[in-house]
Every structure is written in structure tokens, then in C-alpha cells.
From TrEMBL:
GO molecular function: endopeptidase activity
CAAX prenyl protease 2/Lysostaphin resistance protein A-like domain sequence ranges: 145-229
Protein name, entry field: CAAX protease
Coiled-coil segments on the chain, per record: none
Transmembrane regions: 30-52, 64-83, 104-126, 138-158, 179-201, 260-289, 312-335
InterPro entries: CAAX_protease, Rce1/LyrA-like_dom
Keyword line: Hydrolase, Membrane, Protease, Transmembrane, Transmembrane helix
One Pfam family this sequence matches: Rce1-like
Length: 336
């Protein structure tokens, strides 16, 4: 088998060279996106502080606006100029049943919780316990409408369009699994937050598989919205209803009858939500354990198998440069 692969590569040296060049361009485009996003965010933040009167924009809204304008209106168009040099392939579209979608949601639950815990531990170990989750602080400092617009709606649409459609459509021709893993890795690294890295990578694998099997963004976008809604709006609501004004857990024994009555509906919702998530967690674990029965992957027309295929992607200057810079930035953010 190894001799056959080596012979195939010798017979088609141009195909391997083209694959390296095109996949390397994907890495270059991500480098352009990353550098432009950071520089533009800093510039817009400075412009807001100079020209926008204090009090007009809240700190959280100012952060959302500067980051998203830099990302969506400046960095993304520039990155696409490079990314378009790598052709995207057209694939047949398939639908997904509600039952299948529910299965992917269930799988996402243990991935979220396990990934969050790993990220928390890793961040604490690397930073000596000094790192703070900046994104969580920004979301907690904003209001629900800001969170709905920027976190629940805008982010999933743009991120799925870039990391799933644009990247996977250009890489899947060289191997479905490799395309899914790379898109998930890029997605996780772009959060530039070690607290989020592990669950973002796991969820990126789920979103990527959903897209590869359907070639439609609506399913991964909708699941992404649900995940972000749970992690932001619902998490904020539970925190506000479980904590007192000092940020301490409410002690029911210290409340009077009227205060308990006022809190009862909220505690009932929290209890029902917790039970639902526990059921989904267990169901998701079962599905993950039996994943080989459900997952399907197909050979791609220009797939380069084995280590040669991995080198054709991860051995390119563009991808290596992106990985080195983005990993360093993720680590740096733990100390900023």
C-alpha cells in the first residue's frame, strides 16, 4: 500500500504541488485576517475613545463594535481576496431531520462542559491561576440586547460562513476529515481565549461534520446560535437569579416568605433546565461512545492519503505561520 501511494505521488507531482500551494493560501488568508483584525480593532478602539463622548457607548458595546467592525468589514474582505485564489468546490446539498439535529445538539452538551473544564484548568495551570476570562467579562458587562445581536446572531452567521463554508469548501477536495479538523482548529484559535479553546475545537468538529454531510450552513448556524444563547443569555439569567447584589449565592434560609415566592418561578425554570441538560449530557455521551455507527466519511476526488496529505496542509508556510502566531497569541492573552 505504501509503495502504491509513493508511486501515485511520483506519477502526479503537479497535483501534490498544487494541493500544497492552494492549502497554503488558506493559511495565508487566515494570517491576513488575524493581523488585520487585531490592528483594526486597536485603531477603532482608539478612534472611539477620541471621537465618541464618554457615556455614549458602554464598555461592552464599545468592545463589541470595535472588534466586529474590524472583523467583518475590514479583516474578512481582505482575507477573502487571498482565500479566493483557492477554488471552492460545489457539492450536492442534503437535508437534516429534526431527530438528527437533536442528536448533534445532545453531543454538543458534553463537549461544551468537558471543554470548558479543560480550558479552565489549562488556563489556570499556564498562568498560575492569574488568567481571567475576558470574553465572559465583556458578555457579563453588557445587556441582553447587545448579547443577542453580537453573540447569538452575528457571530454564528459570520463564523460559520468563514470557517465552515469558505474553508471547508476549499479543503474538502483533499480529504473530508482533514478539512473538518483544520476548520475546527482555526475556529478555536481565532477565539484567542484559552478558556474557550477546547470546547470551541470540539464544537467546531461537530459543526464541520454537519456542514460536510449537508453542504448547508443553516444547520450548523442554528446549532451555533443555540450554543451561544445557552452560554451567554441563559447563563447570565441564571447567574442574576442565583446571586445576590454582592455576587454571592442566594441563601434561601435568609429570605422571607415574599422573597421566596418571588424567586420560585426562576428557581423552577433553573431546576427544569438543569434536568434537561443532564439528560442531554448523558444522551450525548452515549452518542459519542457509539459515534462509529453514525459517522460517515467519503473519499475526496483529490485526496492525498497518509502523512503526505497531512504535510501538504500542515507543512505549508502559510498554515505553519498561522498556527505559530495564533497559538502564541492565545497564550499571550492569558497574561494580558
Amino acid at each position: 500500500m505504501r509503495k502504491q501511494r509513493k508511486l501515485a505521488n511520483k506519477q502526479h507531482p503537479d497535483a501534490y504541488t498544487i494541493a500544497r500551494r492552494r492549502q497554503g493560501s488558506v493559511g495565508v488568508s487566515l494570517c491576513v485576517f488575524l493581523f488585520t483584525w487585531i490592528l483594526a480593532t486597536l485603531l477603532i478602539g482608539e478612534l472611539i475613545s477620541i471621537f465618541v463622548p464618554k457615556g455614549v457607548l458602554s464598555p461592552s458595546l464599545s468592545s463589541f463594535v470595535s472588534s466586529d467592525v474590524a472583523q467583518y468589514l475590514i479583516a474578512l474582505p481582505l482575507a477573502m481576496l487571498v482565500l479566493r485564489r483557492t477554488p471552492a468546490i460545489e457539492t450536492r446539498k442534503f437535508t437534516m431531520s429534526l431527530r438528527q439535529f437533536g442528536g448533534f445538539f445532545a453531543v454538543s452538551v458534553p463537549i461544551m462542559y468537558a471543554g470548558s473544564y479543560i480550558g479552565l484548568v489549562a488556563s489556570a495551570l499556564i498562568s498560575g491561576g492569574k488568567a481571567e476570562n475576558r470574553i465572559a467579562d465583556v458578555v457579563a458587562g453588557g445587556n441582553v440586547w447587545e448579547t443577542l445581536l453580537f453573540v447569538v446572531f452575528l457571530a454564528p452567521v459570520v463564523e460559520e460562513w468563514l470557517f465552515r463554508k469558505q474553508i471547508i469548501d476549499r479543503l474538502r477536495v483533499y480529504g473530508e476529515k482533514r478539512a473538518i479538523v483544520f476548520s475546527a482548529l482555526a475556529f478555536a484559535l481565532f477565539h484567542m481565549n484559552m478558556f474557550q479553546f477546547f470546547y470551541a475545537f470540539g464544537l467546531g468538529l461537530v459543526f464541520g461534520y454537519m456542514y460536510v454531510r449537508t453542504s448547508q450552513l443553516r444547520y450548523s448556524v442554528f446549532l451555533h446560535m443555540i450554543v451561544n444563547f445557552q452560554g451567554s443569555v441563559i447563563a447570565m439569567w441564571i447567574s442574576n437569579n442565583m446571586m445576590d447584589s454582592n455576587g454571592d449565592l442566594i441563601k434561601v434560609e435568609n429570605l422571607n416568605t415574599q422573597e421566596i415566592a418571588d424567586l420560585a418561578p426562576g428557581f423552577m425554570f433553573i431546576g427544569l433546565y438543569a434536568m434537561f441538560m443532564i439528560v442531554m449530557f448523558v444522551f450525548g455521551i452515549v452518542l459519542l461512545a457509539r459515534r462509529k455507527r453514525y459517522l460517515e466519511f467519503y473519499d475526496s476526488p483529490l485526496e492525498i492519503r497518509g502523512s503526505a496529505g497531512t504535510k501538504a496542509l500542515y507543512g505549508t508556510v502559510g498554515v505553519v505561520g498561522f498556527l505559530v502566531v495564533s497559538i502564541l497569541l492565545n497564550l499571550l492573552m492569558l497574561f494580558v
